[in-house]
Amino acid sequence: MKHTYHFLSMFLLLVFCSHSYGQNYTVTGTVKIASGEAIAGASIKIVGASTSASTNAEGRFTLQVEPNATLEVSYLGFLTQKVAVNNQKEVSITLTQNESSLEEVVIVGYGAQKKENLTGSVAAISGKALENRSLTNVSSALAGQAAGVFVRQGSGRPGSDGATIRIRGTGTLNNADALVVVDGIIGVMDAVNPNDIESISVLKDAASAAIYGAQAANGVILITTKKGRNAQPQINYTGIVSMTQPSNMPEFIADYVRHMELYNEGATNIGQAAPYQQSTVDLWKEKNKDPNALNEFGYPNYVAYPNTNWGKEIFENNLIQNHNISVLGGAERVSYNISSRFMNNPGIMAKTGFKRYETRANIETKVKDFLVLGTQTFASIENREKGNVDNLFNFLRQSTPGVYPFYDGKYGGAAAPDEAPILNNLQTYLDGTSGKDQRTRINSTLYGRLNFMKGLTLESKVNYQMRMQEETSYTNPISRWNFNTNSIVAEGLIPSSLTTAQGYNKNYTLTFDNVLRYSAEVNKHQFGALVGHNEYYYNYYDFSATKRGLIDASINNIGSGTEMAGITGTEYDRSMRSFFGRVNYNYANKYLVEVNVRRDASSRFGSDFQWGTFPSFSAAWRLSEEPFMQGVNRYIQNLKIRASWGKLGNDAAGDYDWQATYGPVNYSFGGAQTAALRQSKIANPQLKWETSTVSGIATEFNLFKNKATVEIEYYNRHTSDILTVLPIPLTNGTISAATVNAGAVLNRGVEVNLGWKDQRGDFSYGFAGNFAYNFNQVTKFKGKLTEGWQTVNNAEVYQSNIGDVSSGDLNRILEGYGINEYYLRSVYKGDGSYQHSDGSVNILGGPESGMIRTQADMEWVEAMKTAGYSFSPINNLGKAQLYYGDLIFADLNGDKIYGNNFDRRFTGTRSEPKYTVGFSANMAFKGIDISMVWSGGFGMQYYWNAEGYNNSIVRNGNGIATRIADDHYYYNDADPMDSKNSVNGQFPRLKYNGDNINNALSDFWLYNASYIKLRNIQVGYTLPKTWLNNLKLQNARIYFTGENLFTITKFPGLDPEIGAGVGYPTMRQYALGLTIGF
Amino acid sequence: MNSSTTQGNALTNYISKKKLLIIFAATTLCLSACQKDLLKTDPYGSLGSTNMWSTDNLTDLGVNGVYQALRLNINSGGASGREMYQFDRFVTSQGRDADDLLLGNATTGNGNFSAVWQELYEGIHRANDALLNITAKSPSAANKKARLTAEVKYLRAYFYFRLNQLYKGVPIYLTPVTVAQTILPRATEEEVWKQVLSDLSEVINEGELPNRYTKGNANYGRITKSAAYALRGKVYLYTKQWELALADFQKVGDLGHNLFPNYANLFTEANEQADEMIFSIQNLPIEGFGSTTQFMLGTRSAFGSNWNTYNVHNDLVDNYDNLDGSKFNWDKVIPGYSTMDVRKREVFFLRNNLTETEIRNSSNRGLDMSLYLPTGNEERIKQAYANRDPRLKANVITPYSEFLGRIIEGSERIFTSRWPHRNESGPQYDLTTDTRTFFYYLHRKFVYPGGAPIPSRTAGGIDFPLIRYGDVVLMEAEALAELNRLPEAVAKVNTIRSRAGVGTLVAGSNVQLTKEGVTTRIRQERRAELANEGISYFDELRWKTLKETIFYTGSGIKQIWGAVVIPYVWSGDELYTWAIPRVERERNTSLTQNPGWQD
Questions:
Q1: Can you tell me the distance from the alpha carbon of A968 to that of A347, in angstroms, rounded to the nearest whole number?
Q2: Tens digit of pLDDT for each residue in A35-55?
Q3: Do A890 and A955 lie in a common domain?
Q4: How far off is chain A from B119, nearest CA to CA, in Å?
Q5: pTM of the predicted model, to two decimals?
Q6: Is residue A213 part of a domain?
Q7: Which of A360, A469, B455, B477 could disulfide-link B489, Cβ–Cβ 3.0 to 4.6 Å?
């Protein structure tokens, strides 16, 4: 609270110490655009004098002039106009739009800049690109919109569907998320209604992002919300109703007979007893013949002897509703944008949805001519359903078809005696918990802008934002029923064992931000400067309590619980203090230079290491403005080259990592609890900033009379002193390793943006494509990898320091390789000749597929062993060890052991794309408009070995994926003619409850994960004005829109965008929308 | 607005601008100067290292933290495989699934190899930190510091003892070290024993350390001299210094430890501080302070809906003598039992009054249903367990025996282990497991009977014994046998058998009075007495009997009648020594691997 108080008092001081001022001959005027709409903030200068003014919210200005003066009126995006006063007291000026897109204004850190005058790398996405999409979150809307901005939505779960955004690859070994700044304040995307967005700018390089210094190393996403303007209030309603379905679903064997047979196969394959008795298999076979027949208890066979398809069962199609209403307008001295949204997203699984209510008020008032006060306030409330999705996806593969989900008010349990009685019934994870989960956000900025004199303004902001979650949770006692014996297999908990919990957590941030800006223009010299100061404080705390024992299952307030079961609470905080500045200079819009510097101090480091300095320098040369280019401009327009260099920081350490702490653990003596302390994390008092040094060079130009735009950029980002936790020897115990500044990563790449826009009469169309290539390499970590043969005690020994110089296992971090490159065995590939001509074993002559499939293959393995070679991980031959249907791995280091740890190699691939692409197209004809957006990533691989989904292990209580069931090796060595034999199956033989051979990390499970996705398609129709006038409407548009319509990929898993695993699928949506303006 | 006010405004405007600039500058300066504490944040839930050990209370808490390292292997989400009783899966227990160490499939990357190593070294480093700071920083009274130092030294010795049991020769660290310093090569097995003995001797020589705590003492559970004697004696068994071992074991008895009269009741919360207990992990029936035995050993029918992750191996059951002390023989109960096809023996275990379907299914499994007695089958098989060593009944749920279990249909129920399983609910209340199509012996020891005996299945309150006097007596017998003092050895075994209520060993009758004969009986006795206490596996490693005891031909995870569900595979003598974890050898290349293990 001390921070709040301090911030507020300073703010009030700054804002209210002011007086008014004026001059002699007064001219007043109005600045409008052709449609009659007033322009606020247009600048009016007297030609040849230093006086100037700007228009208020109604587009009006007042200026002291000589009666014969000439006024110059300018506004970004419009052609500058000169007007003679000619003794008038009142002038009216209408500005015309500058047709060139280059006049576009782009929001940059702590300011705005004409696109043509940018010296850094900024991708601007207009709010229009997000409009009318059936979006559930802002982040996924950025996919495909800008080169070098890769967006991956990892989950479709309502409320957790925010996408991961990577700007120019992954530059660090820790948190690589971009900084999000909403209306000038560090915030979160969830606290923005997509309909409120005016524009989004992505700051990609140091030149543009250094003004955010220590938090900007992974790029900055600036979101600006719509402000009011001086005009008639315009009421806008947008409504979207969207039909959703999962974009893909996992497939399991639903036929329980087949499931049981496959499990028995897995057990007998390794010489173990079959887990399912033949009598159970036969029973199901018989009952499956007549699924609708009723058993003695009146249950149909399909319920009593189930064959449940869980992959389908848990999903449902639903409708998302999204209603948005806003009022935008202004009156004398006041302008406002007030909006609210209601969204109901039921998700694609029962009890996983949410409802959210949002509202925003952006209100600004001009208290005096030189003083503006305003607020940007956002609030939302979200109510989530309590379906336990995490458990559900954890257990999706751990479910068998032998359980019926729900029938006649009863939940199914294990139907066969061969199963454990408490078998997962996924429906119970959705229905098993009830309670409340309410999340509230408030984000409010109060700001004031003081205009001291021409060109000098001070802007001060105080922001308070908080997110809190209130939760209650109680278990619903669910009994599970066996419908074929009409008995309970697992009885729901009795009231005395039921628990009820209530919890609360909250985080809040306080920000105090002051910026003093100055700008001046003398002849062709334009000069701008800015100094600023920022204070930031973040705090999180939580509290929760659980009680066991309820009076009755229906009474679940925590006060009614009988026995205390637990209370927990935590708290942590961090803070930051910063000073920053910028100077830019522009000569004749031809030569542009900019310098930024920011100094930040973070509480995450010890007092001697808190401060970091982050400078940047950039320059641009607009060649097209040069006289000598006049001839060329016919072919190439607006040619510009720019270059930049700068440093950015990252403070992504734990909040207290630099200090050593002792944390509490539990023990007892003499039957009494006692506290105990032990060192929990190794300290590192020298901990400091991670620094990225970014340089770039780019060229931009237009072709075909500005119809085509081209932007090509090369960048080089080197991150050093990376904050990371290095693996420590096990011998250090279970203590957490210290956070250290270790390692460096290079990201280098090329980005290309291409655009085309044209209009032929009523028909207009455009394309935009972007492409980015990123090269990623760890340049410093723990030293170089050295491996090879060494003589130790007169014996040749193969030695490797891989464990010492790298971290990870499947994915490793090692100097000279990409971050988390795969490190795998290779499957052996022989030529199938088995022997040399002299009868000796040919080490290159083993099975062609690398799997022991035939007797000849097995004989080769035996001959190899006889000849002194061995196989790893398991060398012994036998049903439970190395056998038919197992993989052999290549001996890459030549130590005669096939597939030991030394035979692993880097694959040169990672789970992150080398190439990212985006493509969009749009066209309009009369009232009809069509658009689409594609995005994708290429040059990435996924290692996908997951029990139940994609490997050959059949484990107690799990399901089995169809792709494995249909295509695995099987050989009955007792009966070579067995019709079930499948010696050409792609996957290894089934094994019950584990597999140390085929699951050894190898490239067998590595897949190409490149994909391209149709993100969005939209067809709209705008009603003609003549109809609207009758309806008294300003505008109206109806449209159809689809999200995530299809993916082109070779990856066999659920969705390459989600990753290799299986989680809440992304949604495919078909939506109908309506926008009306009053 | 008229021109005179405009003039005035211009003036005040000029002043205010200046003022404002000053205010802005002052604000900025003030915020950074006055608010220095903005950037100073400290953790809310833990203690900074500068303060640690600086008060008497913090000294106590730090030492308690060393004790807590005994609990590091506890995992409440499922079996870690590393809690002491879970090690019995290699000998007297069996898992529902087999461990890689039993399947011939273990590699140097095995998770237990690395986790056990890491957890024991964690204890060692906590002890080293305490030892240094009790001396250097703690303001506690000198006699208290002396006692605490002895306690911590004992714990360090215990952790090294455990490491040496498994890995045989590990790096020795005796002071706090930095990460960069943890690069020592392995000491030899002998050097580690020497270190353990040296610490234990210092503990024994510490005058401030009590001999032992009696029941009800608030310090109960802390290290005592008797614990040090017992552990040192055990180490002497490893180093084959039998006389020294014997002397230490005798000292334990001298300090007042004795056998609790009732074996079955010993393993309850009421008797966890009996004079028999020497050193135990302290458990409380409170979440986060208890044990997991209920969860891993109990059945679905026991309170808490448990997993029976571990069952009883039928070799242990057959190992229990008849009540009169003679060797149990199946053929005496069911003639021809031992020679018939193992799978066909199932018929004797079937419940009375099988349904037609059950009979049909049984015949389909190849059972000779002419051997089935529709109303007397249960009574016949119960005879096999009726007149046996009472420890069998105390430790094992045998077929058709009862267990007082969880509440269903409103009250706690008596469940019966029957085959084939039908229904957990009334009126029959079949004891229900997760392995209903396999018939296994189930654990009774450390399983809590009744409707709601503990708060949850992972909050068991019974202290887990690490060393108890019964163990010491049998080790005494072992030392005596090694010294060829055979009658004395037999007498020691007989004190254990008498307490259990089983017929004693009589030379020439049920024990051969040769070194080998007596040793064999001692080993059998230890398996029977210490079942499920996390001791037997280490015994077999020490005796080098693993191959014969566990990996004999036809061994495996077995159903009650002996049918192998999962066969065990002997991969070689390397199984007597655990592998140095592969990842550790990668990080510290000076560590050599144990013979037979391939990285």
A1: 35
A2: 666 777 788 888 777 777 778
A3: no
A4: 6
A5: 0.85
A6: no
A7: B477
